[in-house]
Amino acid sequence: MSAAERMEESEKITIPVTGMTCAACSARVQRTLERAPGVSGASVNLMMHNAVISFDPAVTEAETLVQAIRDIGYGAEPPASGLTTMEEQEALDQEDEAEYRRLRTKAVISFLLAALGMLVSMPVMGGSAMDDAHTATDPFVAWSHHTLDPWLTAVVPWLYTIDVGVLRFLLLGMTIVTMVWAGRHFYTRAWTSFRHHAADMNTLVAVGTGAAFLFSAAATFFPGFFQSRGVSPAVYYEAVLFIIALILLGNTFEARAKRRTSAALRKLADLQPDSAVVVRDGVELELPLTAVVRGDILVVRPGGRVPLDGEVVAGSSAVNESMLTGESLPVSKAPGDSVVGGTVNGTGSLRYRVTHLAADGVLSRIIRLMRDAQATRAPIQRLVDRVSSIFVPAAISLSIATFAIWYLAAEVSPGLRAASAAIAVLIIACPCAMGLAVPTAIMVATGRGADAGILIKGGEALQRAGDVTVVALDKTGTITEGHPTVTDLVMVPGSGLTSRRALELAASLEADSEHPIAAAVVGHARDLGIGLLPAGDFRSLTGRGATAVVDGFTVAIGNARLMAESAVPVGEEELALVRRLSEAARTAMFLAVDGHLEAIIAVADPVRESSVRAVARLQKMGIDVVMLTGDNRTTAEAVAREAGISRVVAEVLPEGKIDEVMQLRGAGGVIAMVGDGINDAPALAAADVGIAMGTGTDIAMEAGDLTLMRGDLSGVPDAIHLSRATMKTMKQNLFWAFAYNIIAIPIAAGALYPRFGILLSPILASAAMAFSSVSVVTNSLRLRIVKPEG
């Protein structure tokens, strides 16, 4: 079996993964899955807590992959079966909400216990010989002691009458409750990692707080042992309490941010109604969507939401499709037109036949595409993986070295100083920010793109789009509207007809023709509210035009050859006009009535107004624009001039487009190919970034890396601008994450103490670690307000 055949037969699944808390965790799960037999690709997302895996079902299965994740100490469950995309999204939202509420409760109670513990610790320190040693080794404790102690003495003097030993045991109890209940997962996950010969963020937190707790517990139960050896029996319960509380606070903010970044998915899932009005045996019944079958006739009343995808069979209305395209202008719907589930009906009433159920409708496909995109990884994530794989072991080694140096060098309370510095190093080195730097930006950017009608396939496509230097555009349906439209109706001097009458006769004749140009003439008449007259003796003359008798008149419409055959005289002025129209990429036709030339009608596939603006924006962004088309050079150059494109490659077949794309790539450019996603599929695949144009109902989602739901070129500069903004945000996040560790770890180890006398408290270290994670997430959330450029 070839590689291509094997790729076609591969399956993709998304497995929820629990227990991942930092970049080291996600990198470890990623490596494990990529090494598993039969796996062709894996993407593990720390923010989404899942793994998207492509595998060969002939070699392995989902249960085997789930077990591989469990074997390295993380929780995993097979993907739920039998659920629609909407139900899956609802379940994920409920899990996210429950996780957020659980973390919020733990964080609030932990902070209350930490604050209470700080108050209780005041008389403990003030009433024992450990005061000087404790405040000397912990600046935060020193500040709180000297600030709060006088106030507490005045407000709650009775607290200072309680025996210090009793207060110590009270602190011990509060700390045990916090560690066992609120922080239990840190220790269980650290133990699991240890059993599997690994280390992660939980290891750092567990070792740091565990060491502080064990030291404090020993000092509580055996204070005489310490005093007899000249060591003050200081306790660090309040430090353990605050460290756990602050880390839980950071986790809570991360969970809250995850809910916010998933808002676009929730908004889409909420668009689909729970029920539909179904016509059964001539009776309208309101049924749940699960009871609707393909082929049912549904009724959508004015202002109602379309339940499922289908084709209109009766009625007319204007439907708001902004959920698909980002464009608020309603789209007219009549019999034969398609409608999409989740869109909003206007003032008319529609009846339509269901073509797709909820599970395979456009809305479900968009949600699946977005969810897969948010779970993917950008290439820049590999840098994070390489660093995180050695970071935690290095942090533990540095903590041990810090302890040893302080123990040997400190003149006062060497054990306490060494323990404090070592714990601060462990806590501040947690690589949470590193793990969140890239996935949070991808999640927010894909959601923002969906709001703007841009579907992004994943992190790799998102990163590559920002590097684009050349955009190659197909002509028909990309730069142009994709269907002929009447652009000119010029009455011949001396004609006895009005332009409206001339169009009425022409459209009545063309109504019996199946030619696309004829359809353009008929459509133009209908748009102007002109009714059609019956036509008799219709004749279609291949390569020349058509004739018929309309309202008693002999009508002919076609080229100069037909006029000559019909003995209709055509002057030089009219022939010159036709030549000028042809040079402007318009197809001109003569209209004759009873042997007299009456008008010239020109039809063209017009350039979209948005295409001209989009090309100008791309050029303003420093991007070269090239047109690749199979049309003749004259037409192609006329369209290019109108669109503002200077470089044209015309008369090329699909294979030729691939060659052109490869030549552009060979010249050192990063190429984005924009096409309709069907005829241009080979070129889309050959480009660095393939961008498929979509109408919202017939989307070639698999053809490109990005899909423009709005169906016009304005999405191309929008997508590139969003990509550049996202990459800028990712780099800012990574800079902050790395800089934080590079600066904070030496400070925590005591590098500033010899010259400035500055030490970093373990409590302040945990606050700094939580702040670094929150800052990264907050920075990523700024992408939600990215505006189009130009």
Describe the model.
Helices cover 53% and strands 17% of the residues. By secondary structure, it is an alpha+beta fold. The longest helix is centred in the first third of the chain and has 42 residues, at 85-126. It is elongated and about 125 Å long. Residues 1-8, 127-137 and 696-700 have low confidence and may be disordered.
Quick description:
This protein has 30 helices and 26 strands.
Low-confidence blocks of residues = 1-8, 127-137, 696-700
Head-to-tail CA distance between termini? 49 Å
Query: Strand arrangement, largest sheet?
Result: 14-26-25-24-15-22-23
Number of helices: 30
Could you tell me the strand content as a percent range?
A: 15-25%
Please, what is the average pLDDT?
82
Overall shape: it is: elongated
Rg, nearest Å: 35 Å
Please give the share of residues in helix: 40-55%
Largest sheet: 7 strands, mixed
Report the structural category: alpha+beta
Count of extended strands = 26
Which key phrases capture this entry?
single chain, 790 residues, alpha+beta, 7-stranded mixed β-sheet, 6-stranded antiparallel β-sheet, 30 helices, elongated
Secondary-structure topology with pairs:
Blueprint: H1 3-9, E1 11-18, H2 23-35, E2 39-45, E3 50-55, H3 62-71, E4 75-76, H4 85-126, H5 131-137, H6 139-155, H7 164-182, H8 184-195, H9 201-221, H10 223-227, H11 237-261, H12 263-269, E5 275-280, E6 283-288, E7 297-300, E8 309-315, E9 317-320, H13 322-325, E10 331-333, E11 338-339, E12 344-345, E13 350-356, H14 362-375, H15 381-409, H16 414-428, H17 432-451, E14 454-456, H18 459-465, E15 470-474, H19 475-479, E16 485-491, H20 499-510, H21 516-527, E17 535-541, E18 545-550, E19 553-558, H22 560-565, H23 572-583, E20 587-593, E21 596-604, H24 609-620, E22 624-628, H25 633-643, E23 647-649, H26 654-666, E24 671-675, H27 681-686, E25 689-693, E26 706-708, H28 715-749, H29 753-756, H30 762-781
Parallel strand pairs: 15-22, 15-24, 22-23, 24-25, 25-26
Antiparallel strand pairs: 1-3, 1-4, 2-3, 5-6, 5-7, 7-13, 8-11, 8-13, 9-10, 9-12, 14-26, 16-21, 17-18, 18-19, 19-20, 20-21
Helix pairs in contact: 2-15, 4-6, 4-7, 4-11, 5-6, 5-16, 7-9, 7-11, 8-9, 9-11, 9-16, 11-30, 14-17, 15-16, 15-17, 16-28, 16-30, 17-28, 17-30, 18-28, 20-21, 28-30
